[in-house]
Specification:
Blueprint: H1 11-60, E1 62-64, E2 67-69, H2 74-81, E3 88-93, E4 99-102, E5 118-125, E6 128-139, E7 141-153, H3 155-202, H4 222-269, H5 277-303, E8 316-318, H6 319-325, H7 328-336, E9 340-345, E10 349-351, H8 354-371, E11 377-385, E12 388-395, H9 426-436, E13 440-445, E14 452-459, E15 475-477
Parallel strand pairs: 9-11
Antiparallel strand pairs: 1-2, 3-4, 3-7, 5-6, 6-7, 8-10, 9-15, 11-12, 12-14, 13-14
Length: 478
């Protein structure tokens, strides 16, 4: 059993957690602070309403013969006690503490006051909690003080506290949500340069190893990007050195191998002992195979790290014309193998390098001739499908085992059923050239599950997209 790897940590999630989780913890604290700051003025306003009633009672106080009186009419009493929410009670006492009017029970908790002093306190009247305001009013001489006490139940205060609490909570939640949304937007915008940089890094390949533009990345990740650019530079140097070595080695080997192949062929045409004949044939075959390998290594060196075009338009090439022009090059080896080589060619225009496309086509046909076996049928087909130029080479020979369909794309990889003296580089070259032209190459069994069908799909030249298959001539050779 393979160990399960932990999911990669998310920078976005980490930033959002550190930004949003403190907000969640701060919402109750912020609501409590707003409540504490807002509820006190609201309750003070209700206390001032009690003082208004106390002042009104003070103004009603009268002195007759040194005695304080509180002349209250029925209408005045009704007005003083009028309240839509709470029960209002009051009492006024003379300097001796005797009630002059109102609820005498309130005097039980009346505080001692100086003249002009206000006192607010909580009290209970008939079992109900009350809020009371007491005022020391002068009665006659400056030393005589009448106590004016007004109380009301807590309905309005409880409503005010509830309203302030809800407002504080709503304001805190709204602020937290706004800050969370801003945090999400800020993190997203802050990570956008990283996302662009990741797209740039993902687009890098051996064909495209230029450095990432530093102006597009944040200062905090610039050391990382500088390290990547340094790595890209070293990769470019290593890839260039590898390609140069392979190309130089292949060039150096071409001449002696060609000489060896020609000399072996000349010796085979001359009279020689019969015992040397098999050795000479093997020598010639080895020289032929080595020459082919060198040519393929040269092609690989050219395609590795290559980029098509330098900004100038690429030539437009018809794959059907390319196959027709080079058909004669393949007739001799197919006749030697008693193979039937046929062509079904419809116009298929692409933009690319003709030398590389000819190499691609030649490798496909060579593979079919070399590995399909004697007496098989090989068909080269070109056509246009949905804006793509398609090249197919189909045979009904040995084919490739299903489990090897991806394996044989590798370099120096050959299928178990492959015949001939191939190098295992042909299909790798085909895929490299197809990808270099923005296309793809696929393998699948041939018609009826017999043989092999290699399909190369390339972007079609826009000026030559054909919607009517009869609009261009069709070439059919067999």
């Amino acid at each position: 059993m393979t160990a399960r790897t932990a999911p990669a940590p998310s920078l976005r999630r980490t930033l959002l957690m550190w930004l949003i989780l403190p907000l969640v913890a701060l919402v109750p604290l912020a609501a409590a602070l707003v409540y504490a700051l807002a509820v006190r003025p609201a309750l003070d306003g209700l206390d001032r309403a009690l003082t208004d009633t106390a002042v009104a009672l003070t103004n009603i106080l009268e002195m007759h013969d040194g005695q304080a009186t509180l002349p209250l009419s029925t209408q005045t009493l009704r007005a003083l006690r009028a309240d839509l929410v709470d029960d209002v009670a009051f009492v006024v006492s003379d300097p001796q503490g005797r009630p002059l009017g109102g609820e005498a029970a309130l005097l039980a908790h009346a505080p001692a006051l100086r003249a002009g002093e206000w006192r607010f306190f909580d009290d209970t009247l008939r079992g109900r909690p009350m809020r009371a305001a007491a005022f020391g009013a002068r009665c006659g001489s400056s030393t005589q003080i009448c106590t004016v006490l007004v109380a009301e139940s807590l309905g309005k205060r409880q409503d005010a506290e509830r309203a302030v609490a809800l407002a504080a909570l709503a304001a805190s939640v709204l602020l937290a949500l706004s800050l969370a949304l801003l945090a999400v937007v800020a993190v997203r915008r802050g990570l956008r340069p990283l996302q662009r940089a990741s797209v740039e890094i993902g687009a890098r390949s051996l064909q495209r190893l230029e450095p990432i533009e530093l102006a597009t990345v944040p200062r905090e990740v610039m050391p990382f990007v500088l390290a990547l650019n340094d790595l890209f530079g070293r990769l470019r140097t290593a890839a260039s050195a590898q390609r140069a070595f392979v190309e130089d080695a292949a060039h150096q080997l071409r001449t002696p191998l060609s000489t060896l192949r020609v000399e072996a062929a000349q010796v085979l045409t001359q009279t020689c002992p019969s015992s040397l004949k098999p050795t000479l044939l093997r020598l010639y075959a080895a020289a032929e195979r080595a020459s082919h390998l060198v040519q393929q290594l040269l092609t690989l060196a050219r395609t590795d790290g290559a980029v098509l075009g330098d900004g100038t338009p690429l030539p437009r090439i018809d794959l059907a014309r390319l196959a027709a022009e080079y058909a004669n090059n393949w007739l001799r080896p197919t006749l030697a193998m008693e193979q039937d080589l046929g062509f079904d060619l419809e116009p298929a225009f692409v933009e690319g390098d003709e030398l590389l496309l000819r190499e691609l086509l030649g490798n496909l046909v060579h593979n079919a001739i070399e590995h399909a076996g004697a007496g098989v049928s090989i068909t080269v087909r070109t056509r246009s499908v949905a804006g793509r130029a398609v090249l197919e080479v189909i045979d009904d020979g040995r084919g490739v085992l299903p489990e090897e369909l991806e394996h044989v794309w590798g370099r120096f990889r050959r299928g178990k059923l492959a015949g001939g003296l191939g190098t295992g580089l042909g299909l790798a070259i085909v895929r490299d050239i197809a990808r270099l032209h923005g296309g793809e190459a696929t393998l699948q069994p041939g018609v009826g599950g017999t043989g092999l069908a290699v399909t190369v799909s390339l972007p079609q030249s826009p000026e030559h997209i054909i919607t009517d298959p009869e609009a261009e001539p069709v070439v059919n050779l067999s």
